[in-house]
Each structure stands twice: as C-alpha cells, then as structure tokens.
Design goal:
- With about 950 residues, the protein is α+β, with helices and mostly antiparallel strands.
- Helix content is about 60%, strand content about 10%.
- The chain has helices at about 5-25, 45-110, 110-165, 170-240, 270-275, 295-300, 355-380, 380-385, 405-420, 440-460, 480-495, 510-515, 530-535, 565-570, 580-590, 610-615, 615-680, 685-735, 740-795, 890-915, and strands spanning about 245-255, 465-475, 500-505, 505, 520-530, 550-560, 595-605, 805, 825, 850, 860, 865-870, 870-875, 920.
- The longest helix has about 70 residues, at about 170-240.
- It is flat and about 160 Å long.
Length: about 950
C-alpha cells in the first residue's frame, strides 16, 4: 500500500509539535510560527537615541545659524537702502544746481540769442524767395512753349481745310469707282457659294443612300448569328439542369472523454477535524471553511494528499483513464486515480523522459493559464486585490508561455538544485545552501539582462519593474505511469492555487505569484529527488519506490511603469522565445475534439450557380455574337461618318477659297482708291485734326511731369536752406549757452554705481552665510550617517515582531504501525509558503527569529531615482515568490535542549496516540 509507509510518524509530530509550542510559551513570552501574521514591535536602541539627540542638536544649531544669517543680511540690506537714499539726494541736488546755472546763463544771453534767431529767419526768407522766383520762371517758359505749339497747329489745320475744298469733286469720283468694285466682288462671291452648297448637298444624299443599303444587309447577318448562339445556349442550359451523382465527404465531429473535476468532496471525520492548513497570511492554524468566500475552494485543499486518497465519494466522471482525458482548463475541483483503468505510458525506474517532461510542462502551463483566466472572469475580486497597485485592475492578463527561453531557465534551476542537494522543502535561494550565482533569481537575471537593459533604455523616464517569483511543489506517484504523475500534479496545484483563495483580504503567496499580471513566462522544472531527500522527515513523499520530483515554477515578466497598455505591448512582443509545448497541447486537444471525414455519394440537383458555371461558355458565345453584331454596325457607322466628314471638309475648303477671292478683290479696290486719292493730294481732315491735337497733348503732359520735378527740386532746396540755417543757429546758441546733459548723465551713472556696489556686498554676504550653513549641515549629516550605519549593521540579523517567532525543534518519527490505514496530513510547519529575498530566514537556534514567507524578491525598478536625506533610493516593486519554509536547522547545543524536551513530549504523545489507536502521516507538498 502506497500510504502505509508514512502512517505513524505523522500524528506523533502533530501532537508533539502542539505540546512543544505550549511549552515554549511559558519560557519565551509569546510565540507565532506563522510569518504572515507578523507585526512590528521595534525596540529603541542606544544608537537610535543618539541619532535622535544629534538630529535635535542639528536642527537647533542650524535654526540658530539661519536666524543669525537672516539678521546680518537684513542689516546689510537696510544699510544699502540708507546709503542709496543719501547718494540719491546728493545727486539730485547737484543736478538741480546745474539746471539753475544753465537757466541763469540762458537769461544772460537772451539778447544775443534773439538777435541770432532774427538773422537766421531773415536769411531763410531771402533764400526761399529766390528759390520760388526761379521755379516760377521755369513754369512761365513751359506755358509760353505750349501757346506757340497751339497757334502753329491751328494754322496747319486751316491750310488743310482750304486744300480739301479744291479737290472735293475728284475725291467723289474716286469713291464711286471704289464702291462699284466692292459690289462686283460681292455678287461673284454669292454665286460661287450657292454652287458649292448645291454640290455638297448632292454628295451627302448619295452617301446616305449607300450607308443605308450596307446597314440593312449587316443587320440581317447579325440577327442570324445571334439566333444561332441563343439556340446553342438553350441546349446547354437544358443539359446543365439535369440532376447527377457526386462523391461526398461528410465531416463527423468526435468529442473525446475529458474528466470533470469533483467539487462535492467528502472526507473522513478525522480528516475534516484536522482541518485546512495552508500558508495564508493571517492564519496560524487551521483555516475555517466559513472564512472562504467560495466554499468549493476549501475542498481543493484535499488535493494535498497523495492522489486525493482521503476522498470517500470519488466520482467516475472525475477519473481520467489517459493523458488525453486530462482537463486543459483549471476549474476548481479534484481528480481521482484508478490504476486499473490507466492506459497511459509507463515511467521507468530512472524517472521521466525528456518527452514526458514536455507533456507535464504543457499540462501545467495550461492549468496555470486556466487558473489566471478563470479567476479574472469569474472571481475578479481576487485578481483585482493582487493587482490593485500594478495598473491591472479589471484588465485581463496575457497568457503565460513556456518556451525554449524558459526551458533553459527551468533546466538551469534543476541542475543547480541537484548540484547543491536542495530538497523539495527549499526554494532555489541562497538560504538553501547554494551560492548567489546559482539561485533562480540570478539565473533569470543573467538570461533577461539584455532585455531588461533594452526596456530600461526604451522607456527612459518611466519605471521598469521586474516581476520574478518562484512557486515550488512536490510530485509523486504510487503507480509509475505518466497519468498518475499528471493527476498528482493537477490536484497538488489545485490546493496550491484555489486553496489559497480564502477571501480577497487573505490570499496565499502561491496564488498571488501566479495572479500577478506582470509575469509573461514560466519555466517549469522537474527535479528528481534523491532517496536521502525523500527519507527526510517532512518530505511529504509517501511512496518511495517510484521517482518523486520537486516541481519549480519560475515566473518572469516586466511591468512598465504600472501602465497596463505599455506592459501588454511588451508582453506581446516576439522576445520571449519559441513555444516548446504546442505539439503536446495540440495532441491532447485533438484527442478531446476532432473531426472525421466519411466518404459517400449523393444526387445533386444543379443550383442556379451550377447552371451558370456549366453554360458559361455558351453564354460567352452569345455575348460574343451580340458584341460582334454591334461592332459591325459601329464599323459601318464609323465609315459613314468618315465619308460625311470628308465631304464637309471639302465643302468648307471651297467656301474658304471663295471668301479668299472676295477678300483679294476688296484689297485690290482699296489699294486703287488710296493711290488715286494720294495723287490728288487730298487729306482726311478729321484724322489730321486728331494728329495735331495728339501732338499738343503730348507736349502738355511732358510739361506737367517736368513741373512736378521742378516743384520737388524747389521744395528740397528750401528744406536744405532751413536745415543749414537752423544748424548754424543751434551752434551759435550752444556757443552762447553750453548744454548740461553730459554732466547730468555722469551724475546719474555715479549713483547707479553706488547701488550696484551695495548689491554686490549683500550678495557676497548671502553666499558666505549659505556656505557656512551648508558646511554645518554636512557635518551633522556625516555624523548621522555614521550612527545609522552602526544601527543597520547591528540589526542586520534581528527581527522585530509584535509576536516573537520561535524555531521549534524537529518532530521525532514514531514507530510505524503497518496495520493502520494511512492518511497523509499536511503539517503546519510544512505548508505552502511564498519565498522572496529581502527578509531574514530562520536561524539554527531556538531563538526569536523572523521566517520568510511571501516577501518581496528579485523586484527592481529601473530609471526614476529619487533622493531623500542625501541618500539615493531606487524605486523597488515588491514581487512575491511562494515558498514553503523548511524547519530551521538547530545548532548542536540547541538540538540537545530540543531532544530533552522532545523526550518528555514524545511520551505524552505516544500514550495519547495509543489510546486513540490512530496514526497519521504528513505530506510535504508546496513551498
């Protein structure tokens, strides 16, 4: 029997542990072995008192120095104001004196100034009169020239009028001959145009008759061709509509058997009485079922027992018979195992093959994603509680992936755990006896350092949080088959995840780690446990004849500035490697649902579409016949139109020639008339008059332009006269009464120099005061830092809790009773814990310590550094890693004390167990 080997020591350890806890209470005030319930009760050290005293002295002296500095600066500022005011009064007095002297000088020279002004005005007046006289003389000359031109024009026009009267009859005869020539040319044009029109109309009528004959013949040919094509289409359509037999392939959906998890679990009374012992913050002992928001989650705890042997009402539908029947989702509930109906492949005594590991990885990945998605969709309050500070409240998580990238991480973790002999009760951390570079966080940092560096550079100015954590559980099998291992792992993960969802304020570390929306990948490792590890007290392995495994879940991801959109964009990038479990998952999915194709025949009645396809060729022929008919008609119409266009062009050419002949006759008649008129000497009086008037207007316009320039030159000359004379006057007045503006400017500059000097003195004083203040502050900061450093060094291995935690001695195995049915109880000290770096681990002595559960680890924030108290502090995001805390090792002296205590307790426990007639076995499952 697979459980019989572990019956006896379990109850001894349980009872003895309870008695030891009570005994320790009497000697160490209070105890609390559950780290999740810890509070801070810090004692004040001597260094802290010294620190506070120095800090108070620093505040007092700095305040006094600041007050003294403020007083000196205020005094200097007042002195500056007084000095500036005095200098300003003196400067204004000197300026007033200068102004008074200047006014007196002006009074003395008033007569001379007036005489100079009068002389200047007279000179300006004389020169202005001369310039105006010169301008008027030029204007008068222009007007005289215009009068001469106007008189000459009048004389020339009178002579032309007299000559025209003498030639009037000759001109009349010449014009009569000209009009007759125009009339003859018009008559010739009319007769020629009528003849051309008659010829054009006759040719057009002949072309129309020819076209109509060709059109009738072509239309008859086209009708015959279309009729033949339509008959051929009708025959093809009748044939296409006939029913016919075809071969078919029918698709038949096949749904495979999938086990359904069992939620209505019943267990023996002694199991129910023992209760639920999970590492959930806020609980030291059993967790009441009434505390669960969803009571069905409480039943998943019994998955902690090997193959759920404590379930008394196992359901057939919850018992898979092969790997293909394992559920891929992860609804709450447990599976049962039936060795007689196990059709899966065997697992050799050497353990799982690489291919079998990939199958288990594929299943575990599917279950982790199923848990995340089911909690988000149906139990949102738990998901939001975990992600309330990470930007993912009500934002769906991205599915985890298992890739070559994460397989490398998982394989390195397994190799290091094996190398340093880390058992299934310990995480892949330094406290488990391995160097820092061998820990899971170091492995992940090495693999992801380039990605993290790139993200930090890309999101400069934002905080890049690293989400890294590790969950740990134990996998074993009473029957060495792949199915038995898979069911064992499934049930164990049920308790590890759903079992920890007590209520939104009480969630265990494993569930928190998996529900973190920032993680994107998981490396799932399978470490084969040695015989020495499985034989350890508290290993939880009940069947040692088959290989057992420590299963590690190392989650990796990044949260970009708590921004869900940025984080999911990074998660969806192609930077996480290539999946290595798709084939295994697809094989299981295909077995659970696939479609078979079955051959057959059926009679098909052609559809309209079928007929359309079958007659497409004949339809095309009909379309071609119609198109060709139209093309032939279009060709005839085109040729006919071309003939008409040619006739029209010929007609237009004849009309153009007739018009050209007419224009030539008119041009000739005009030339003859003009020559005759010229011979008579006749002149066109109207045109000649216009010519004379135009010449006169051109002269007037030229004179107007010249007059404008003369006026501008005169005005410029007068302005220059005034400027020159006024400059002479100003020079004379300045000679009589010199300006005082330069002296006033000098006095004002001297006053500004006094102000600037006072400001410089005050600025120098402020700088000296600031330097003195900073120097004193720096001295105190150095002193405070030294005190703080001593305090930190002293408290590196100390823990302050409201309830002191005591490391209890290891329980002693009781004798094995092979006649009692075995039940594996998970012990309080071996329950689920969340591991993270940053908290003090148990020390090897029965003293007050702080145990590590669900603590921030491997969570760093890049970019955005802040400063406080002159010390740089990086923003750190706490990411939890679930860990089962192994019992702390005792020092040799402590073990002696524990053994003496245990001897007394063991007697009491043995007597009690004998009276009950029941022995129990513990099973170490998760860390």
């Amino acid at each position: 029997m697979r459980n019989s080997n572990t019956n006896n020591w379990r109850s001894t350890a349980l009872i003895a542990g309870a008695i030891l806890t009570a005994g320790v209470v009497t000697t160490t005030s209070t105890t609390d072995v559950h780290a999740d319930n810890s509070q801070n009760n810090a004692q004040v050290s001597n260094d802290q008192v010294t620190y506070d005293q120095v800090r108070a002295t620093a505040d007092q002296q700095l305040a006094q120095l600041q007050s003294a500095n403020d007083s000196k600066e205020a005094q200097q500022a007042t002195a500056n104001e007084q000095s500036n005011a005095a200098d300003l009064a003196q400067t204004n007095a000197q300026i007033d004196q200068l102004k008074a002297s200047h006014a007196a000088r002006e009074q003395e020279q008033a007569g001379a100034i007036a005489q100079a002004q009068a002389s200047t005005a007279a000179s300006i007046e004389a020169q202005t009169s001369a310039a105006n006289a010169e301008y008027q003389q030029q204007i008068n000359a222009q007007q005289q020239n215009e009068a001469i031109q106007r008189a000459a024009n009048d004389q020339q026009y009178a002579q032309a009028v007299s000559q025209a009267a003498e030639n009037q009859q000759a001109v009349a005869d010449i014009n009569a001959q000209y009009q007759q020539a125009l009339s003859d040319a018009a008559n010739t044009q009319t007769s020629q145009a009528q003849a051309a029109t008659n010829n054009y109309n006759s040719a057009v009528a002949k072309e129309n008759d020819t076209y109509q004959g060709k059109l009738s013949a072509q239309q008859a040919t086209n009708a015959e061709n279309v009729k033949n094509a339509e008959a051929s289409l009708a025959t093809a359509t009748a044939n296409a509509n006939k029913p016919y037999e075809v071969a078919t392939t029918n698709e038949v959906a096949v749904t495979g058997r999938v086990a359904k998890p069992q939620t209505d679990v019943k267990v023996p009374d002694y199991v129910a009485k023992y209760g639920i012992h999970l590492e959930v913050r806020g609980y030291n002992g059993a967790i009441p079922v009434s505390d669960y928001t969803y009571p069905e989650f409480a039943n998943t705890y019994y998955g902690e027992y090997p193959d759920s042997v404590v379930i008394t009402n196992k359901a057939a539908e919850s018992t898979p018979h092969d790997i293909s029947e394992m559920p891929l989702d992860f609804q709450p509930g447990l599976l049962s195992y039936d060795a007689k109906n196990d059709h899966s492949e065997k697992v050799s005594a050497d353990g799982l093959t690489a291919a079998q590991v990939q199958v288990l990885r594929a299943l575990a990945l599917s279950w982790e994603n199923g848990f995340r998605n089911n909690v988000f969709q149906n139990y949102r309050e738990f998901y939001n509680a975990v992600n309330k500070n990470d930007g993912f409240v009500n934002v769906a998580p991205v599915d985890l992936v298992s890739t070559d990238f994460t397989d490398d991480i998982a394989n390195q973790v397994v190799a290091n755990r094996t190398k340093y002999n880390v058992d299934n009760n310990s995480h892949t951390v330094k406290d488990s006896g391995m160097p820092t570079e061998a820990t899971y966080s170091s492995i992940i940092n090495n693999v992801t350092q380039n990605l993290q560096k790139n993200l930090t550079s890309e999101f400069n100015g934002k905080t890049v949080y690293t989400d890294v954590n590790e969950n740990l559980t134990t996998m074993q099998a009473g029957t060495p088959t792949l199915l038995n291992y898979a069911i064992n792992l499934y049930n164990s993960m049920q308790g590890m995840y759903y079992g920890e969802l007590v209520n939104p304020t009480h969630i265990g570390g494993h569930a928190v780690n998996l529900l973190r929306a920032g993680v994107r990948t998981v490396g799932i490792g399978f470490q084969k446990l040695t015989d020495e590890m499985t034989a350890k007290s508290g290993s939880g392995v009940s069947d040692r004849k088959n290989p057992s495994y420590a299963v590690t879940f190392d989650h990796v991801g990044f949260n970009i500035d708590h921004d869900a959109n940025l984080t999911k964009e990074v998660q969806n990038r192609n930077v996480w490697g290539t999946s290595t479990v798709d084939a295994q998952l697809n094989t299981i999915k295909t077995a659970q649902y696939h479609v078979n194709k079955v051959p057959g025949t059926k009679t098909v009645t052609p559809t309209a579409t079928d007929v359309q396809k079958a007659t497409a060729s004949e339809q095309q022929k009909l379309a071609d016949a119609k198109a060709q008919a139209q093309q032939s008609l279009d060709a005839l119409a085109s040729a006919h139109q071309a003939s008409l266009n040619k006739l029209e062009q010929q007609y237009n050419d004849v009309k153009a020639q007739i018009k050209a002949n007419y224009d030539a006759a008119v041009t000739k008649a005009t030339s003859v008339r003009d020559a005759a008129l010229k011979a008579t000497g006749a002149v066109d009086l109207q045109a000649y008059k216009a010519q004379l008037d135009s010449a006169y207007q051109n002269l007037v316009k030229a004179d107007q332009v010249a007059a404008q320039k003369l006026a501008a030159d005169r005005d410029a000359k007068i302005a220059n006269i005034k400027k020159t004379e006024n400059a002479k006057l100003n020079a004379k007045i300045n000679e009589l009464v010199p300006s005082i503006d330069p002296q006033i400017k000098q006095l004002q500059d001297q006053h500004q120099a006094v102000i600037a000097h006072g400001d410089a003195v005050l600025a120098e004083l402020k700088a000296e005061n600031k330097a003195a203040y900073n120097k004193l502050a720096e001295q105190f900061n150095v002193q405070l830092a030294a005190i703080q450093q001593r305090e930190d060094a002293k408290r590196a291995n100390e823990v302050r809790l409201a309830n002191n935690t005591v490391v209890l001695p290891t329980a002693v195995n009781a004798a094995n009773d092979g006649n009692v049915d075995t039940v594996a109880f998970p012990t309080v000290t071996n329950r689920l814990q969340a591991e993270t770096t940053g908290r003090v681990q148990p020390i090897s002595a029965p003293s007050i310590v702080k145990t590590a559960t669900q603590t921030p680890v491997a969570s760093t924030a890049d970019n955005k550094a802040t400063k406080a108290d002159n010390n740089e502090k990086s923003v750190v995001k706490a990411d939890t890693v679930a860990k089962k805390q192994a019992p702390a090792k005792k020092s040799e002296s402590s073990q002696k004390v524990d053994r003496s205590s245990m001897s007394i307790v063991a007697l009491a426990a043995t007597a009690l167990l004998a009276a009950l007639g029941i022995t129990y076995s513990s099973k170490k499952r998760h860390n």
